[in-house]
Amino acid sequence: MKTLRVGMISFAHGHAFSYFNHLAQSPEVSIIGIAEEDRNRVAAIVEQHSIPYYANYQDLLAQDIDAVIICSENVHHAKLVFAAAQAKKHVLCEKPLGTTMEEMEAMIAACKENGVQLMTAFPCRYLAAVVRAKEAIDRGDIGDIVAIKGTNHGGNPGGWFINKDLSGGGAVLDHTVHVMDLMNWFLQSKVKEVYAYGATLFREELEVEDAGMVHVKFENGVFAVLDTSWSRPKSFPTWGDVTMEIVGTKGVISVDGFAQKNDLYRNSLGKGVYSFWGDDMDAYMMRDFVKALLHNEQVPVTGEDGLKATEVALLAYESIKRGQPVAL
Asked: Where's the GFO/IDH/MocA-like oxidoreductase domain (predicted)?
């Protein structure tokens, strides 16, 4: 059986551990090595799984591998994708794809020039509720879409996420892209205008915003609003949510991406706990990435998809700065 030889670069983003676990369980994948400047981040899994460790990502890229998974701080995505492309390695890059339009366009171009594929990590496309909604929309069950109201709330992730020099932005950048990608996927229409609000409402000492509202108009006439924030307190059972109300001419679809759960309440923990029993979106995303590369197929979520979703967040910052709508 043919296997995909994969390397992982940086575990700065917590999603890397989930991706690693799914890759390690796949009979179609061989994890060749992990590159991470901070060895403490990966010491446990390197030792447990006897995987070669590299302090320098260039040393990993020099190995006989087919693809890399990049989960670094946001501002390092571009340089790591450039390096991987030049080494002729396919790439799955954590969201947001980049922090500027120029670097994202250059990342996409570099991968194309070197004959490798670039996939953006948007696992929310694999949530059961999202998949069923997409199928219903494509069947025309609710007629033509008129408007979408979405949310991506969460708790403040702390760490490098609240350091603008490493993250590139706060909640607006962090939490716009997932649901914006879903809206783009559903509508297949270009964004023509963005109007946004952003502020620091929950932790005044932050240098980045922890709350935002992003309003979007599409070329096909649909308008959307997205509540993107780090508004959930420490006592909240989970990191956040992904919800949408999709209003059509013949009906409405309500999407709650993480509703497949049991609620557990324990005094010893001081808060409720969500016990999620639904399909694992990360597992499906990693499966499709591996499958596409092994069979020489197009990856299902491209670098262009990552750019289009991130562009809305960047335009939101411009709108916040100007205090008025920004047109493309």
From this structure: 131-253
Q: What is the DSSP string of 13-49?
A: STHHHHHHHHHHH-TTEEEEEEE-S-HHHHHHHHHHH
Do 94 and 70 form a contact (C-beta atoms < 8 A)?
A: yes
CATH number of 124-280+310-327: 3.30.360.10
* Average pLDDT, integer, range 37-49: 96
Interatomic CA distance for residues 125 and 138, integer angstroms: 15
| Domain limits, CATH 3.30.360.10, in the chain | 124-280+310-327
CATH superfamily of 4-121: NAD(P)-binding Rossmann-like Domain (3.40.50.720)
Q: Which among 263, 273, 187, 276 is positioned nearest to 224, based on CA atoms?
A: 187
DSSP 76: G
Beta bridge partners of 69: 8, 92
Which residue spans of the chain are classified as CATH 3.40.50.720? 4-121
pLDDT tens, position by position, 234-250: 777 777 799 999 999 99
Q: Using alpha carbons, select from 204, 198, 152 the residue that is nearest to residue 177.
A: 152
What pLDDT digit, counting tens, does each position of 51-67 carry?
Answer: 999 999 999 999 999 99
pLDDT at 89: 98
- Phi and psi at residue 242, to the nearest 5°: -140, 105
Nearest partner of 282 among 19, 70, 16, judged by Cα: 19
Q: What is the pLDDT of residue 240?
A: 77
Q: Render 245-271 in DSSP notation, one character per residue.
A: EEEESS-EEEEETT--EEEEEETTTTE
Q: Is 326 left (phi over 0), alpha (psi -120 to 50) or beta?
A: beta
DSSP code of residue 130: H
Amino acid at 140: G
Q: Is the peptide bond before 52 cis (omega within 30 degrees of 0)?
A: no
